[in-house]
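hi! just following up on the protien thing from before. the input was this:
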Amino acid sequence: MKSFNRRSFIKGLGAGAAVITSSSVIPLAGCTATSSSDSSQTPNDDDQVLLIGDNIAIADTDCGKVKGFSMRGVYTFLGIPYAADASGKNRFMPPQKHARWDGIRPAVFYGNSAPQTIYSRVPTSYGAFVDHWNYDEISENCLTINIWTNGIADGKKRPVIVWLHGGGYRSGNGIEQDGYHGENITRYGDVVFCSINHRLGVIGFSDLSAVGGEKYKDSGNVGLLDMVEALKWVNRNIANFGGDPGNVTIIGQSGGGGKVCLLSACPEAKGLIHKAVPLSGSAITANDKAYSQKLGEYILKEARLTPAQIDKLQDLSWEEYMDIANKAAVKLQEDMGGPTTYRGAYGPIADDVYLPKGTFFEEPLPNSPDIPMLFCTTFHEQSPSRTDAELEKISKEGVVERLKSRYGDKTMSIVDAYAKNFPDAKPIELLAMITSNRQNVINAATAKKHQQSPVYMAWFGWCPPLFDNRMRAFHCLDICFWFLNTDLMLTHTGGGARPRKLSQKMADALLAFVRTGNPNTSSLPQWPEFTVENGETMILNDVCEVKNDPDREARSSLM
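and the predicted 3d structure came back as:
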């Protein structure tokens, strides 16, 4: 890691500087920078922070030159295409190479979001207040990458971090939340930070192979192939942005955590990724191929087309196609008696070509990646009382009643087990922990232990002092901590010194992991590898400590 003035940096994290975003000028956690491109200099509050011009932030790619800008000493490139427009004849096809462009292409604004139904942003929405989703244009011309770096073609081999956004496989984008922003972690750790957009939902995962033949054989996994193509682009080009193509870490949260696991099992990604960090999301299986092909038949039927007319699906607007595909999914699920597949109707498919059938990692697959992984979840992924203060008064019996439809006759024993395991937890916290239980992430880590590379486990328990302390350690909260954005994502943390202190520790651990595959750092207690026998877990909170499988007794009641 490059040298820097730690006191000035930490002070600067709360400085309330500004960054150009997709909507307006908003507060940004981060140091102000010197007016030169030497980001190793100590930031000065009086210096010019934004630099853009004819000879500033210009980099080569294999399709031509791009020009970004320098913000507080960090070079920023937004919306660089890593593949061609995926609309029209490219719909349902694997990503195609982008044509070369003449001159210097501006890379100063985020790329389009993939077709999707975006979250509500009405002024009465607490969800919009907390997450203030960033969306602009939506189109199939969405295969773009954003890059933050401290150097351009300077011969340094900086570790590369590639962020995969959340939203399941149906929604989201690379800068969906301000907590995804890459400037602070780039400056602090001297890494290259990237985030990508890729095809989602019905556009990315409609399996037409059974009705469309050879031409459509890959249609059900093109959203996955977009991610692989972005990684190939990084492999070919990231040295021009000061990065090391031989040291790439993928990290994602929620649906992005699932994507991390999928790529960690994908033969096409071998050699392109070297470490992986799934946050609050994991996957050890993909959608069933027979089901996805049957859904393709329903799509064609809903569109009132014959197999010979399948190409007409490429002529529809994405809105028209989305409507058809969603109606087809509903009809198929009705005919089959209800939802039956992982992640709903449209998601990556276990085709034994791009993703293995069965459980990932358990069988030795020499063509798949075998890389270090660091898993993390939060204590209260699904905490129901943020906007319902009355739930704070719920009794233990009330918790049992709310969970009966899910757990049936086992409900009382499950609640009792969690109450015994966590004697200081309030009933509302027991409800949150049970509905947010760690069974899936433990299953994923256990499966991963069949490989040779190390596995590490974290559990994030820090609770923000917002909504009268009802938010707790909710889904998405830890993202801004890993990337030193706690003063940027104020509606998640409240800002200030308390979250900043934990954020620095977590960023140090993440940076150690991306450099070496081991998260140990002087900022935290010794962090042992996860084992199935002991379940070693780093608890991330105001006080960080390692515990052996801290919820094992409670979790066993779910079996």
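Confidence is low (pLDDT under 50) at residues 1-41.
The longest strand covers residues 243-253.
cheers
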